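Page 42, continued from yesterday. The earlier attempt failed because a stray header line got pasted into the input along with the sequence. Redoing it now with the clean sequence only.
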Amino acid sequence: MNMRILIFCLCLLPALLKAETYIDPQTFLSETFGGEIPAVSKLWIKSDLKEKIRDMLNHDLGVLRVRYWKKDARTAWVLEEIGKEKPITIGLVVNNDRLEKVEVLAFRESRGWEIRYPFFTNQFKDAGLTEDLELDRDIDGISGATLSVRAMTRMSRLAILLHKYS
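This time it went through. Structure tokens are written below.
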């Protein structure tokens, strides 16, 4: 009987764990801007942008404005998107309409965490958007992490789009 309880508890463990935080947003921003974080800016989601976001994500963003940080032609975004059931927090840097850096800041799912490693995130470096708001390159998936890969790809596309409006 005790063994059944132990197995049951072990099966529930991933669901009970909190987010695995790899880097907090302040540290991400500090590293991005060489220790001097610019003042936070806000991008209001107006009707034309809201429509593009809805087409891109297949859902509304759920906020009226998005916070970002900007210095010269570089913007930094801390965005969240649902993987399978829980949000993944991603830090993205866009420079001249191209992705410069993509980093998983916090991961809450029980699987798919492999998207945080450079072998995956490096695929996004220097990616831009096509006219139909797709990434201008293919992103290789990870077996068992399909929904996390899709979430990361959507947020990458979104960051570039938002950068164009910043």
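Notes: The CA atoms of residues 129 and 136 lie 5 Å apart.
Reminder to self: strip header lines before submitting.
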